[in-house]
Amino acid sequence: MRLAVTLLAVSLAAGAGCGGGSTSGASRIKTGTSQTKSDPAGEMVRASDQTGDGKVVLVETAVLKVPSYVVIQGDQAEQPGPILGVSPLLAAGTFRTLLIQLATPLAAGKKAWAVVRIEGNGDHLFDDAHDPVAGSGTNAVAVPIRVLVRGA
Fold first, then answer.
1. CA neighbor of 134 nearest in space, from 38, 5, 14
2. First-to-last CA distance in the chain?
């Protein structure tokens, strides 16, 4: 499955003097309890429970050792399930304040997962079948987050 992707804001913080990007959308999302997951190779994702419009999910930090995507997946029996939104292909580095547009808005109180998926086949297009989750088993770089939708 290939998806068109939209990334609303990215701030690159890998190295001195790097930075930038717009974070205005992030100010409309309120965050709560944060969760972090990393694997032995050094990939990492950090995201928090959040309140927003259900159309965008904020991922606070992603550390990527190789070109990868940050993917928002729905919850399926307490595991990452259907793909809801995908960042563009991101180079190796540290990224902060990733706002990921969802193709399908989340319903109130639903759980989602922020997952690092490695560009697996070199085509630079996200493909669920060919871009594996960073890490594996208990080291999978994926964190659950609860999204409370305003007005719902």
1. 38
2. 30
pLDDT 10s digits, 64-81 = 999 999 999 999 999 999
Q: What is the DSSP letter of 139?
A: G
The 3 state secondary structure assigned to 42-96 is CCEEEEEEEEECCCEEEEEEEEECCCEEEEEEEEECCEEEEEEEECCCECCEEEE
Backbone angles phi, psi at 97, to 5 degrees: 60, 60
Pairing mode, strands 93-101 and 110-118: unpaired
Each residue of 83-141: pLDDT tens digit? 999 999 999 999 999 999 999 888 888 899 999 999 999 999 999 999 999 998 888 99
Spell out the residues 6+ positions from residue 38 whose beta carbon is closer than 8 angstroms to its own: 44, 45, 63, 135, 141
CATH no. of 7-149: 2.60.40
The structure's pTM equals 0.81
**Cα torsion at 43, 49, 51, 56 (round to 10°)?**
30
